[in-house]
TrEMBL record:
One BP term from GO: polysaccharide catabolic process
Identification of the protein by name: Endoglycosylceramidase
Pfam families the UniProt entry points to: Cellulase
Superkingdom of source: Bacteria
Coiled-coil stretches: none
Gene3D superfamilies, sorted: Glycosidases (3.20.20.80)
Entry similarity comment: Belongs to the glycosyl hydrolase 5 (cellulase A) family.
Keyword terms, alphabetized: Glycosidase, Hydrolase, Signal
Span of domain Glycoside hydrolase family: 88-404
Annotated transmembrane regions: none
GO molecular function, one term: beta-glucosidase activity
C-alpha cells in the first residue's frame, strides 16, 4: 500500500450501504468452460499493442475493478485471498453486480508459496488456483500480484506496533537483521525509510544476497507453471498478466547511486529475469505488469524520487506500465485540510498516461484508494470521485465539454480494496495471541475496503454505489477519442456534480436532467464486434436513454447482431449488464467519429427531444473531432 498512511482509528464508519447481494452457494465440482452469458466476441485473451490492451476482436479494453484482497497479507486464512472457494465466488458475484468490475488484481504470498526454501507448497498453489477460478468463471479478468509491504512480517516483534507481509521466515533468518524499530512513526509507511531492519532486508533482496532473488524467481516460475497447467485454455485466456513485485523500493542506495540508476541497474534487470520466467512457464503471450520505484509519483515533494523506468527503453507488448497512486497529502491529515475537488488528480494521472505512452505500452493504476474510517475519512467521497474522474479523462469536468479531444486514453485501474471480511477479522498480529485484530482491514490500522459482509451474510457496499458502479468503456471497437462519466455521487447529503452539461447544449441537458450520464466518442476500427459500456445497476434498461449517431433509444432492447443499440448480460451470470453499440464501418480509422450519450435522467423523452439532442451532439462532435 501507499508509503504514507494514517494509523486509523478502530471505529468502523460505514459510509454507504445502498445495495446487497446474497451469499453465493458453495462451489460445485464442475466449472463452466466459458462464463455464462458470454457472446461470440467474449473471452479472448488480451494483448498489448500500440499502447493499448486489445482483445481478440481488436477492441480496446479497459480493466476496472479491485484488489481482492488484503486478506492475503494476513495469517488468519493462510495467506489466501479468501477463507474458501465459496467466499471467493460470493465476492466475484458481488464485485460484478455491486462494484461494476471486470478485472481484479489478486495478491499472492511468497511466504506461503515457499514456506521452506526450495519447496513450493502445492496445496497453497492449488487453493490459489481455485479461488482465481471463481473470478474467471464470473467473466472477470485476473492479474496476480506477488505482494509485499515492509518486506516480511517475520521482521517484526510480537509486541510491535507494525507488521509486514511478503517474504518467508527463512528469507528473514538468512539476513540476521537488526531489531526492528521505526522510532517515532505516525504512519506505517515510515518503516520503509526509517526502520533499519526493513531497509536492510529490501537492500539484500535487490542485491541477491543469500540468493534471495534467485529463490524468489524460481518460486515465481513454479507458481506460474502451476497456474498454466491447472487452468483450462478458456480460463487462462482470462488471466491478463502478472505483477512481479508490489511497490519496489531500494531499501538504501549504494554510494553514488540514485533512484533512477537503481531502477536501471537493479529493478529493471529483475523484471527482465522475471519476464524470462514467465516465458519459461508458458506465459510468453502475457505481459508483466511492472512497477517503478514506489516514490516516483509521490505527491509530497520530500517523498518524490526520480523514476518511472525512464531508462528501460520501449517496453512494448511484453510489459505494462503499472503504478499506484494515493493522495498522501490528504491521508496525512495535515498537508491537505479540505476535500478533493474537480480535476484534483488530473495532472497526477496525466503523468501516468504520458509515461506509458513514452514507454510504448499500456498503463494500469493497480492501486488507489483512501481510508474509510479515522480522522481523514471525511475526504473519501471526494478523493475517490476525483481519482475515478482522472482515470476516465485527463481533462477536469469544468473544461471537458470545451476540450474533449485532450481526454487521452481511459486508464485501467484497481481500487484498494474489496475485502469481504472487513471489520470481522481475527488476526493475531505478529503471531501475538494477546493482540488479535478484528477491525478494519486488520493490517497496520488500515480500513479501505469498499465492501463488507452484513449480519446475514449479504455483501454490502461501504461506499456510495453511484461512485463505485460506473459507466466505462470496457471494450471499444476502434480507438477511444474521449470519455467522461458524471456519477452524481454524494458527499454526505451533497450531490457532487463536477461535469454538468453546458447550457450551449440545452436539449442534451434536458435529456440528462439531474441524472447520471456517460459520453463516449470513438473512431471505428472496422471490426464486427460491438463497442461495450458497462451499465451500472442504477441504469436499468427500462430507464436508460441512449443518444448516438447509431440511433436514439429510450429503454434499449435486447442485443442482436442487427440491433445497433442494445443491452445484454455481462459474462458470468451475476446479473450485471452492458450496452452494446454496433457500427457498420468497414474502413478502419477513416470514418467519422461515433458518439454515444448514455443517461438515466430522462423519463419517456419524446422523439423530438431525442432528435434535437442528437443534432446538438453531432454538431459538437464535428466541431471538436
Amino acid at each position: 500500500m501507499s508509503s504514507i498512511r494514517m494509523r486509523l482509528l478502530t471505529v468502523l464508519v460505514v459510509l454507504s450501504g445502498f445495495l446487497t447481494v446474497a451469499g453465493a452457494p458453495p462451489a460445485t465440482a464442475a466449472t463452466p468452460a466459458v462464463p455464462s452469458g458470454s457472446l461470440w466476441f467474449d473471452g479472448t485473451p488480451l494483448t498489448v499493442r500500440d499502447g493499448r490492451f486489445l482483445d481478440g476482436q481488436g477492441r480496446e479494453v479497459v480493466l476496472r475493478g479491485y484488489n481482492v484482497s488484503g486478506e492475503t497479507k494476513l495469517e488468519e486464512n493462510g495467506g489466501l485471498p479468501f477463507a474458501s472457494v465459496a467466499d471467493a465466488r460470493t465476492s466475484a458475484t458481488a464485485l460484478r453486480a455491486l462494484g461494476g468490475g471486470d478485472a481484479v488484481r489478486l495478491p499472492l504470498s511468497w511466504a506461503h508459496a515457499e514456506p521452506v526454501r526450495g519447496q513450493v507448497d502445492t496445496a497453497y498453489l492449488a487453493a490459489v488456483t481455485e479461488q482465481m477460478r471463481a473470478f474467471l468463471d464470473a467473466g472477470i479478468r485476473v492479474y496476480p500480484d506477488f505482494h509485499q509491504d515492509l518486506y516480511s512480517r517475520y521482521l517484526f516483534d510480537t509486541g510491535s506496533w507494525y507488521t509486514g507481509d511478503g517474504a518467508p521466515k527463512w528469507a528473514v533468518d538468512a539476513g540476521n537483521y537488526p531489531k526492528e524499530s521505526c522510532g517515532i512513526c505516525l504512519f506505517w509507511g515510515q518503516n520503509i525509510t526509517q526502520n533499519a531492519a526493513v531497509r536492510k532486508a529490501q537492500y539484500d533482496f535487490w542485491h541477491n544476497a543469500y540468493g534471495l532473488q534467485d529463490a524468489f524467481l524460481a518460486m515465481a516460475r513454479t507458481t506460474m507453471a502451476h497456474l498454466r497447467q491447472h487452468l483450462s485454455e478458456e480460463e487462462f485466456a482470462g488471466v491478463v498478466g502478472f505483477d512481479p513485485y508490489n511497490e519496489p523500493y531500494a531499501g538504501s542506495y549504494d554510494a553514488g547511486q540514485t533512484s533512477r540508476t537503481w531502477e536501471r541497474d537493479l529493478l529493471w534487470p529483475f523484471y527482465v529475469k522475471f519476464r524470462a520466467r514467465m516465458d519459461a512457464a508458458g506465459w510468453q503471450d502475457k505481459p508483466a505488469f511492472v512497477e517503478p520505484n514506489l516514490f516516483w509519483n509521490a505527491n509530497i515533494s520530500t517523498q518524490k524520487q526520480e523514476g518511472g523506468l525512464l531508462d528501460a527503453g520501449t517496453l512494448g507488448p511484453d510489459y505494462v506500465f503499472n503504478t499506484h497512486f494515493y493522495d498522501q497529502k490528504a491521508i496525512s491529515g495535515i498537508l491537505m485540510w479540505g476535500k478533493a475537488a474537480d480535476g484534483q488528480y488530473a495532472s497526477d494521472f496525466a503523468a501516468v498516461r504520458d509515461r506509458a505512452s513514452a514507454a510504448g505500452t499500456a498503463a494500469v493504476v493497480s492501486e488507489f484508494g483512501h481510508p474509510l474510517s479515522g480522522t481523514v475519512s471525511d475526504k473519501a467521497p471526494t478523493v475517490l470521485k476525483a481519482m475515478y474522474q482522472a482515470l476516465d479523462s485527463r481533462v477536469p469536468g469544468a473544461s471537458w465539454w470545451t476540450n474533449p479531444a485532450a481526454s487521452g486514453p481511459v486508464l485501467s485501474g484497481s481500487q484498494w480494496q474489496w475485502d469481504l471480511y472487513s471489520g470481522r477479522h481475527h488476526e493475531p498480529m505478529n503471531a501475538n495471541p494477546d493482540k488479535v485484530v478484528t477491525s478494519g482491514d486488520a493490517w497496520n490500522g488500515e480500513d479501505l475496503s469498499a465492501v463488507k459482509l452484513g449480519d446475514f451474510g449479504n455483501v454490502t457496499l461501504r461506499q456510495d454505489a453511484r461512485l463505485l458502479d460506473r459507466i466505462y468503456p470496457s471494450a471499444t471497437a476502434g480507438t477511444t477519442l474521449a470519455f467522461t462519466y458524471e456519477d452524481r455521487s454524494r458527499d454526505g447529503s451533497t450531490t457532487l456534480t463536477w461535469n454538468p452539461v453546458p447550457s450551449s447544449l440545452p436539449n442534451v441537458a434536458r435529456v440528462v436532467g439531474s441524472g447520471q450520464y456517460g459520453l463516449l466518442v470513438w473512431r471505428s476500427g472496422g471490426g464486427t464486434a460491438p463497442t461495450e459500456l458497462h451499465l451500472p445497476a442504477s441504469f436499468p434498461a427500462s430507464a436508460t436513454t441512449v443518444v448516438s449517431d447509431l440511433g436514439t433509444v429510450y429503454a434499449p432492447p435486447a442485443y442482436t447482431a442487427a440491433t445497433p443499440v442494445g443491452v445484454a448480460p455481462e459474462p458470468g451470470g451475476s446479473g450485471s449488464r452492458r450496452l452494446l453499440l454496433t457500427d457498420t464501418d468497414t474502413d478502419t480509422g477513416s470514418s467519422a467519429p461515433h458518439y454515444a450519450l448514455v443517461t438515466n435522467g430522462a423519463t419517456a423523452p419524446s422523439a423530438d427531444l431525442l432528435n434535437a439532442a442528437r443534432s446538438e451532439l453531432a454538431a459538437w462532435t464535428a466541431a471538436h473531432f
